[in-house]
Structure formats: structure tokens, C-alpha cells
TrEMBL record:
<dbReference type="InterPro" id="IPR016161">
    <property type="entry name" value="Ald_DH/histidinol_DH"/>
</dbReference>
<dbReference type="GO" id="GO:0004399">
    <property type="term" value="F:histidinol dehydrogenase activity"/>
</dbReference>
<dbReference type="InterPro" id="IPR022695">
    <property type="entry name" value="Histidinol_DH_monofunct"/>
</dbReference>
<dbReference type="GO" id="GO:0000105">
    <property type="term" value="P:L-histidine biosynthetic process"/>
</dbReference>
<comment type="pathway">
    <text>Amino-acid biosynthesis; L-histidine biosynthesis; L-histidine from 5-phospho-alpha-D-ribose 1-diphosphate: step 9/9.</text>
</comment>
<feature type="binding site">
    <location>
        <position position="236"/>
    </location>
    <ligand>
        <name>substrate</name>
    </ligand>
</feature>
<dbReference type="InterPro" id="IPR012131">
    <property type="entry name" value="Hstdl_DH"/>
</dbReference>
<comment type="similarity">
    <text>Belongs to the histidinol dehydrogenase family.</text>
</comment>
<keyword id="KW-0028">Amino-acid biosynthesis</keyword>
<feature type="binding site">
    <location>
        <position position="258"/>
    </location>
    <ligand>
        <name>Zn(2+)</name>
    </ligand>
</feature>
<protein>
    <recommendedName>
        <fullName>Histidinol dehydrogenase</fullName>
        <ecNumber>1.1.1.23</ecNumber>
    </recommendedName>
</protein>
<keyword id="KW-0560">Oxidoreductase</keyword>
<keyword id="KW-0479">Metal-binding</keyword>
<feature type="binding site">
    <location>
        <position position="359"/>
    </location>
    <ligand>
        <name>Zn(2+)</name>
    </ligand>
</feature>
<feature type="binding site">
    <location>
        <position position="418"/>
    </location>
    <ligand>
        <name>substrate</name>
    </ligand>
</feature>
<feature type="active site" description="Proton acceptor">
    <location>
        <position position="326"/>
    </location>
</feature>
<feature type="binding site">
    <location>
        <position position="126"/>
    </location>
    <ligand>
        <name>NAD(+)</name>
    </ligand>
</feature>
């Protein structure tokens, strides 16, 4: 892991340093565009062909139904079921507080405005399953979809070598009362949910994280179809801000936790102490060697780095430019700097708060914007699954109060039909 000194970095150098997962030669785009076209033209057959090519599985059927899922789910050990149930309960508890009825506002006497939430009717959930199967992601997407009251929930996940999904995914399907999972992964699953195939319904909005192929497919279909997406939620990343109070062994563990997701993950350490940086890097080298996914984590660490800053304020400046998916404040004095956070997906406060708790079970959502999209997007929540529709009502008193203003404004814009729609109600022609 290379170390940079913040004082020696120009603005341009920082801009360069914070870039990740760019596709300068459009290599990923062209692969993904071909996949999307193929699914559009050949539907289910293309999905079966891609399962053979990418997942090395010959599918005779594109989905698992309720009975097959129940059979798989029954193989779980009790402690596994209990852990998934606890995660479900905490995530449910946190997300159910996001449902709020907004107040009606009387902007002028007789002029009443308000918003009401309505669920997105048909949603598609993508559950990654390439290098690791993520039942936790199924909980993170399925729970807010259920709370929002979405009418139809389509679920896609890459087939495993067994030609099925794994048992943990099947158990989560049971918890969420989902009775079908389509065995489709990658860009082809996203295309299928955006265009529809013989067996997969076209959805209104697609949710879920994934690798660079999945994320590129989501951004393409968002601009070429009427299907929306939650956000670009690509390869995982973490930025740890540390001062002298941090524990190098904890820092290393947190850096590796995101690095083990994939070779294109990134883990950044920004610290006020050169000693802490040196000790944390030594710890990373020690801890990585014993990980089952050591090779993946080591490759991600190879393109990760550390930044030495003079003070926590400087660390926060760098972090706000990086806009990390996960931000860990590894300092006892985190209260002093939280107010300065501008761009981050999800924040973990203090030396005893590992990022992994948010990945699995604290209650917050782990589907979060990556690649600096935290500058503009929030992570998934119940809000992501609803539209907020505005309503207004004008009473006889209200039309007298607001009418003349609208007449003048319409006149200013030269839109006389607009003016007339008010005038006829005021009784003035
Ligand atoms: N940002 C978030 O909120 C968040 C949350 C969880 C996971 N993640 C990320 O999700 C990703 C999951 O990636 P994954 O690969 O394990 O699973 P995945 O399900 O995203 O992708 C697997 C699929 O990718 C396709 N694929 C693989 N190689 C391909 C190629 N050469 N060309 C075309 N398609 C190809 C295959 O169809 C395969 O089924 C990781 O990067 C992880 O960090 C992000
Ligand atoms: N860290 C991932 C989001 O970037 C979420 C996850 C799922 N399982 C473990 N971690
Ligand atoms: Zn994770």
C-alpha cells in the first residue's frame, strides 16, 4: 500500500487519486451493450446461454419456485437461521421508522399542499452471487421493498454450480415471502428486468449492487429504457480516518473486510500519524495472509493507499473529495468531526464500530453508492421504493388569494391559456 503526503498533493493529483472504476477505453461498456442487445433480442434463451458461458451452469429452467426454495432453506442450521432472523429484525426495525406521513401545509388561506407516498409497483432486486453469495443483500433490498408495499418483486441472482441459488438465499426468500428467484446474473439479469423476457417481468425500477458489469448495465438501462435504478452501487470501498487513538489492528481488519469483496474493491487509510500508517500496513500484511480470500484481498490492497495528513480537518477534506461508500472515523474524538462530513454513503463512529456490523445486522442498509456517487446519491432506504406524489386543493377563499398572483406570473411568461384557467374560476375574463 503506497503512502502519500497530503501536503505534497496538488488538486489535480488528488482528483486523479480519488478516481476508481473508470472505464476509459469503454471495454466494459461494449461487453455490456452486447449483452443487453442480446437479451433484448433473444430473451430467456440469451439468459440460459450466458449462464452457461459466465456461470458455467446448464440451466433447464430459469427459476426456482416456492417448493424448491423451501427444500433448500430447510437445510440451514439453527444458528444460521437465528443470525439471519436477527439481521432481518434489526433491518426491519430501522427501516420501518422511515415511513412517515407528511403534514399538509396551508401556504395561503385556502391553498393546501401535501405529499403522499405510493409504492413503485414493480421492482427488480439483483442479489450478487459471483465471487461471494450475499443473502445479506437480499435482506437489505427485500425488507424496504416489503415495507414500502411494492406490488411485484422480481428477484434475480446468478446460478451457483448446483444450478440453484444457495440455501441462505432460499431461507431469506422465505423470510421475505418471495416465492420465485430467477437464476440470472450479471448484465444479462439487469437487461432482463429492464426489457422483460418470456419469463421475467419488465420492472419499473431495479435495485441492488454488483460488479462492474452489473453496475454499467444499470447505468445504461437507466438512460435507454423507462426502468429507473436505485444508484450505481459497484465494487465495495472503505475510507478509514485515524488519529493516534486508533488501533492499527482494527484499522487493518476494516481495510481487509472491504478488500476481500473483489479485486476491484478499494480501501483507503487517511491518518494524522505516520506511525499509525506504518503499523496498520504491517497489520494488513499479517492479517491478509490467513484469509481464505487472501488473493482477492491482496489484489484490492495493491491498488489501495494511505494518505498522511496533519490534522483531522485535512483528513475530512480528503474524504469529502473521495466520497467513500463507507467512512470509518477511527478516533475517540469522532464527535468533533462528524459535522464536517459532506460526502459519504454510511458512517461508522469510533474505534469499536466495525463496518461489518452495517454490512450485516445493525439495521442500516448496506446497498450504498460507490465510485464517488456518494456526492449525489443516498443509500437504499424505504424512500427508494416509493414515489412521493404531491397533492393540492384550492378552496373558494384560496382561489381568490392565489389567483391574481398566478395570473400575473402567466402573463409574464406570455402563457395566456394558463392565465385563463385561473381567470375563469375568478369570474374575470
Ligand atoms: N455498493 C454496494 O452497496 C455493494 C454491496 C454488496 C456488494 N457489492 C459489490 O458487488 C460486487 C459483487 O460482484 P460479484 O462478481 O461477486 O457478483 P455479481 O453477481 O455482481 O456478478 C456476477 C456476474 O457477473 C457476470 N460476469 C462475470 N465476469 C464477466 C465477464 N467477463 N463479462 C461479462 N459478465 C461477467 C456473470 O454473469 C456473473 O454471473 C462486488 O464488487 C462487491 O464489492 C457492493
Ligand atoms: N460491504 C458490502 C457493501 O459494499 C456489503 C456486504 C455484504 N456482505 C458483506 N458485505
Ligand atoms: Zn462487506
Amino acid at each position: 500500500m503506497k503512502t502519500y503526503n497530503y501536503s505534497n498533493l496538488s488538486k489535480a493529483a488528488i482528483a486523479d487519486l480519488v478516481q476508481r472504476n473508470v472505464d476509459p477505453a469503454n471495454e466494459i461498456r461494449s461487453v455490456v451493450e452486447e449483452i443487453i442487445n442480446n437479451v433484448q433480442q433473444h430473451g430467456d434463451k440469451a439468459l440460459i446461454d450466458y449462464a452457461k458461458r459466465f456461470d458455467k451452469v446448464e440451466l433447464d429452467k430459469l427459476y426456482l419456485g416456492k417448493e424448491e426454495l423451501a427444500e433448500l432453506a430447510s437445510t440451514l442450521a439453527n444458528d444460521q437461521k437465528a443470525a439471519l432472523r436477527t439481521a432481518y429484525d434489526n433491518i426491519y426495525k430501522f427501516h420501518s421508522t422511515q415511513v412517515k406521513t407528511e403534514d399538509k401545509v396551508e401556504t395561503m388561506p385556502g391553498v393546501t399542499c401535501w405529499r403522499e407516498a405510493r409504492p413503485v409497483e414493480k421492482v427488480g432486486l439483483y442479489i450478487p452471487g459471483g465471487s461471494a453469495v450475499l443473502p445479506s443483500t437480499f435482506l437489505m433490498l427485500g425488507i424496504p421493498a416489503r415495507i414500502a408495499g411494492c406490488h411485484e418483486i422480481v428477484v434475480c441472482s446468478p446460478p451457483q454450480k448446483s444450478g440453484k441459488v444457495n440455501a441462505f438465499i432460499a431461507y431469506v426468500a422465505e423470510l421475505l415471502d418471495i416465492d420465485r428467484i430467477y437464476l440470472a446474473g450479471g448484465a444479462q439479469a439487469i437487461a432482463a428486468m429492464a426489457y422483460g423476457t418470456e419469463s421475467i417481468t419488465k420492472v419499473d425500477k431495479i435495485f441492488g449492487p454488483g460488479n462492474q458489469f452489473v453496475t454499467k448495465a444499470k447505468t445504461i438501462i437507466q438512460s435507454t429504457t423507462t426502468t429507473a435504478i436505485d444508484m450505481p452501487a459497484g465494487p465495495s470501498e472503505v475510507l478509514v480516518i485515524a488519529d493516534e487513538t486508533a488501533n492499527p489492528s482494527f484499522i487493518a481488519a476494516d481495510l481487509l473486510a472491504q478488500a476481500e469483496h473483489g479485486i476491484d474493491s478499494q480501501s483507503i487509510l487517511v491518518a494524522t500519524s505516520a506511525d499509525i500508517i506504518a503499523q496498520a500496513i504491517a497489520e494488513v500484511e499479517k492479517q491478509v495472509s490467513v484469509l481464505p480470500r487472501a488473493e482477492i484481498a491482496a489484489q484490492a490492497i495493491a491498488h489501495s493507499y494511505a494518505v498522511l495528513v496533519k490534522e483531522l480537518d485535512e483528513a475530512m477534506q480528503f474524504s469529502n473529495v473521495y466520497a467513500p461508500e463507507h467512512l470509518i472515523l477511527a478516533t475517540e474524538n469522532w464527535q468533533q468531526i462528524t459535522g464536517k462530513i459532506i460526502n459519504a454513503g454510511s458512517v461508522f463512529l469510533g474505534n469499536l464500530t466495525p463496518e461489518s456490523v452495517g454490512d450485516y445486522a445493525s439495521g442500516t442498509n448496506h446497498t450504498l453508492p460507490t465510485s464517488a456517487y456518494a456526492r449525489a446519491y443516498s443509500g437504499v432506504s424505504v424512500d427508494s421504493f416509493v414515489k412521493k406524489i404531491t397533492f393540492q386543493h384550492i378552496s373558494p377563499e384560496g382561489i381568490q388569494n392565489i389567483g391574481p398572483t398566478v395570473e400575473v406570473l402567466a402573463e409574464m411568461e406570455g402563457l395566456h391559456a394558463h392565465k385563463n384557467a385561473v381567470s375563469v374560476r375568478l369570474g374575470i375574463q
